[in-house]
Amino acid sequence: MSHFDVAAAAVQAALDAGARYADARVMHRRYESMFARNGDVEELTQSEDAGIGVRALVGSSWGFYAVPDLSDGAARAAGGRAAKIAAASARVPGPAADLVPVQARTASWSSECVIDPLSVPLSDKGDLLVHATKTMREHGADQAEGLYHIWDTEKWFVSSEGHRIDQRIRECGGGIASIAVGDGEVQRRSYPADRGQYGTRGWEMVESLDLGAHAARIADESRALLTAPPCPAGETTLILGDEQMALQIHESVGHAIELDRILGWEAAFAGTSWLDLNQLGSLHYGSELMNITIDPTLPGALGSFGFDDEGTPAARRHAVKEGRWVGVLAGRDSAAVAGLDYAGSVRADGWARLPMVRMTNVGLEPGPHTLDEMIAATDDGVYMDTNRSWSIDDRRLNFQFGCEIGWEIKNGRRGRMLRNPTYTGIGPVFWRSMDMLSSEVVPWGTPNCGKGQPGQIGHTGHPAAPARFQNVRVGVRG
Amino acid sequence: MSIELAQRVLGMVPAGVEAEVFVDHMARALTRFANSFIHQNVADATTTVRLRLHADGRTASGATTVTTDEGLRGLVSRTLDAARLCPPDAGWPGLAPPAALASEGNWNEETAKASPEARADRVRAFVDAAGGLETAGYCRTLHWSAAFANSAGQVVTGRTAEVAMDGIARVEGADGTARVASGRLSDVDGAVLGARAAAKARAGAGAVELPPGRYEVVLEATAVVDVLHNLSLYGFNGKAYNERQSFAEPGAQQLDAAVTLVDDPLGDTGLGIPFDAEGTPKRPVEFVSGGVTQAVAHDRRTAAEAGGESTGHAGLGVRTRGALPVNLGLMPGPAASSVEAGAVIDPAAASLVAGVERGLLVTDLWYTRVLDPKSLVVTGLTRNGVWLIEDGELTRPVRNFRFTQSYPQALGPGAVLGVGGQATVFPDPWGIAWWTAPALRLASWNFTGGASG
Fold first, then answer.
1. Are A218 and A247 contained in the same domain?
2. How close, in Å, is residue A356 to chain B by CA atoms?
3. Residue B126 and residue A108: Cα distance in Å, rounded?
4. pTM of the predicted model as reported, rounded to 2 decimal places
5. What residue numbers bound the domain in which A89 lies?
6. Cβ–Cβ of A391/B136 closer than 8 Å?
7. Which residue intervals define the domain Metalloprotease TldD/E C-terminal in the entry (chain B) (predicted)?
8. Domain spanning B2-204 has what CATH number?
9. Model ipTM?
10. What is the pLDDT of residues A460-474, one digit of tens each?
11. Are A195 and A239 in a shared domain?
12. CB–CB contact A393 B446 (8 Å)
């Protein structure tokens, strides 16, 4: 039996057991990671998983069941079990459920990949990390770390509406970090970001980072941070680097525009959203420089795909246009509840997890400035870069972020290095204060977005550029 | 079956190669509700085989869910190939020697076999008990069995079963919560939890904003879980300790004398598999006794680096994050039965609230992130209810705060004004871990921002 046949058998079994809609995903994933510390490879992990997850809609109630067994019998049993679980859900039923229409398709899609990352010799990959971590040690790192991750995912999707879609998505990336231990505190510098940079690309993604070339610099910076003055406390003009901007977008825009949160479906755990659907199309989210798109079609970005896990083809749309909130991340059922006519943002972390609303690539369109212009135009402020900590409330309003490094800006010039830079604010107030935005957009990848119960890890992309904000509270300390 | 699978894989490994195999079978079912109806209802049953090999001085590990002969041979072959290509592993600590388990784990048949209907009925009871308030949350059951075998002759099996329920009720912008974990299905009563969450939500309506600053606090047991979690992840993590990134100094009086922290998956309320990923038997480990730091958690590698022995805390999956306690509990203080808990205050917190002249009662700490791992300065927010305490009484609900606080400093000598007399087991919000906590009265907590910024 082909994987499509297995998925079709599961769907049919769910229908036979009373489902009015069912879909199934067969997935096969291979994963490899390497972690090096202080010039040695400390851990190499390779894993493989394969299975089928079946979703069934009985009346207005959903059920989901998954097994790591791709036999016809196991698939049929899983389909029946999903329908049985859906029937149990009807003991606490919700309002009538519907799905926004999606044209049934037979399609195939693969992400771009120049160098298959799993075929690159382990010794080459190890040499890269060993060299970079040795260099950091030689430049004063107390702990020098390097890592990469590779995911190779194949999936076959079948729905009772006639979808038959297969996709292969290869993702990889990596990074390095230098840790300097001082008297009572620890400083960290990483490149290109904490946990690295990732995309739906082959090993060429890691090669393009040129990790070794940045090892000495970040080790030097981590040591220098131990004696740098602390970020001053108060309100000031804040310039954020593109990597921190990616996190700012992720936390204070990406999660806020998830329709399941807006509808209250995540109220008990991840939280809700400050956004009210009645204001979709009219709410002033940020300044006119703020143009944010939801775009899973971006080649090479980490949140890219051909079709989401409900079979909706990837499509670009605005979430925020010239500062106005105009779009959400939606699935077929949540869109129907909200009265919207589009979905396309539903994905699952593997075959054993229920597809749910997730970010794709949510990011900024380029602005008219450059980072140098922003610094030159700032008399008194702070420039911060590279995320170190992130915390935001359950409505995605009140945030506090910490960066690895900051610099004083005085009279249009970058001055002293600052340690422990933090800033805090309220999402829409902050975004409305953005008065300069760079054209230097980088498609940052976030491979560790947690959501859902049981927990799921999502891979999301965030095109981001440096930006300037006014009257921001910085230097919050314990 | 799991042990046969483990031994089958071990049999595929060539002679002379050190090998360890961990097979686990996790059947997890989770019924989730929001807007007072079940909107997600999921289950999966997954067997995972994890293999670690050490050949010619080099180490590699792999895992698969493909348990056919071909799948298992592929796992062994890939992992051997990987080991050959890895640089020498000078820190290889060797395999765990044969050692008997102290227990096979806490197991309950009724919990392990709980049906979707049993979970849905608990949700129904939670929703009904909330008296018309909007509700959300989950009821989860899982059974987890594991087998371990290594080429040094250690062979062990164990199993556990768990039920957990966690929910909120909502009214006029206020959320109230109730949650619990147990090995026994009969311990989880949706009606009790739903009524409690609703009472707290009603008492939280009309909250006012207070200025940020330092306040005396009573952390309800639910909030103490976050303190335990961060102490485990950053403080008692043997890898962080070896790298001098932890505050822990064994032998030093670092916390208040009222603080005793014990990791124990084997006691009456313990949950989890009774051995770690390296086959080392679990045992109760006292990390802090009377405020004096006693130990940090080690797997075999971090123990070897520190010149000690494994404490049985090797984790599954990626081991580079270090060895962590995942059953950490704060020992309760003396029982105080004379104070009436009422509908709002957690029974474990009632006697502590009675002693506060002016302070805050905090239900949950949320989205906490570490600003500096060594001093363990954490920022986060309050959630699911904050109340002003005046002269031992709750006088009004308060809007949520942001805080920035060193956790060891908050628990430091002289800073703990009371530990509740009753501890509850709570599920970890993310992973497979459990925390046992009473309420805690602390002299000072640094609230650095209000709800409006």
1. no
2. 10
3. 45
4. 0.97
5. 3-227
6. no
7. 212-446
8. 3.30.2290.10
9. 0.95
10. 999 999 999 999 999
11. no
12. no
